[in-house]
Specification:
Elements (H helix, E strand, L loop, with lengths): L5 H13 L2 H13 L5 E6 L6 H4 L7 E6 L15 H12 L4 E7 L3 H7 L10 H7 L3 H10 L5 H20 L3 H8 L4 E8 L4 E5 L6 E3 L1
Parallel strand pairs: 1-2, 1-3, 3-4
Antiparallel strand pairs: 4-5, 5-6
The chain binds zinc ion.
Length: 212
């Protein structure tokens, strides 16, 4: 029989034993009244960049969708399954989310895959290569603009620019564009530096990142 991971069993026990009464009350309240999160986060699946942890968020605070390389694809209605787009639609149109944060991070394996020309030739990266190819044009722009930069510098530049590209893609969704125009929705880009545990935010005007 497949054994359920022990650290999850232990962790959930600690969660039950140590969760303060106020938080348990909050869960009850959220169960009765439903959720009303103020922020939708598009984060990376990376285990080091958990939005709940980084922002010390409470239950009910954040509506989170995570994928490889925290990418928002452009608005398309063709094709079969759109995980990110359905989260955006539900969060913005049905939960009344007022802020969307695209949250990238340092050392992103998905962004590294975009940069590596071998990725699309590998059978074991079939889904990853198709998914991250959304950022191919952004990668090409980085390579064009930084011919003399080191590989690490190019990777970091792509990690940052991909966040801004996702913000651009967000605006291709008609309901996002409409809510932003009405002043009911704000879009933000964030970058978590894992080593220093610091957060950097994209300036909407300059697209440069400043430390929070
Ligand atoms: Zn990542």
């Amino acid at each position: 029989m497949t054994k359920f991971p022990q650290f999850l069993i232990d962790g959930h026990q600690r969660f039950k034993d140590t969760t303060p009464k106020e938080t348990k009350d909050k869960y009850e309240q959220l169960a009765d009244q439903g959720q009303k999160p103020g922020v939708l986060v598009v984060g990376c699946s990376d285990s080091r960049a958990d939005p709940i942890t980084i922002f010390h968020a409470e239950p009910g605070d954040l509506f989170v969708v995570r994928n490889v390389a925290n990418i928002v694809p452009p608005y398309v209605t063709t094709g079969a399954h759109h995980g990110v787009s359905s989260a955006l639609e539900f969060g913005i149109l049905h939960l009344g989310i007022e802020h969307v944060l695209v949250l990238g991070h340092a050392g992103c394996g998905g962004i590294k895959a975009v940069m590596d020309p071998e990725t699309e030739k590998r059978d074991d990266l079939l889904f990853v290569s198709t998914w991250v190819s959304i950022m191919s044009e952004t990668r090409d722009a980085v390579l064009k603009d930084m011919p003399d930069a080191t590989e690490d510098e190019k990777l970091k530049a792509l990690e940052l620019r991909a966040i801004n590209s996702s913000l651009t893609n967000l605006m291709t969704f008609p309901f996002v564009k409409e809510k932003v125009a009405e002043g009911k929705l704000s879009l933000h880009g964030g970058y978590f530096d894992v080593r220093s545990a610091s957060m950097f935010i994209s300036d909407p005007e300059t697209k440069e990142f400043y430390k929070l």
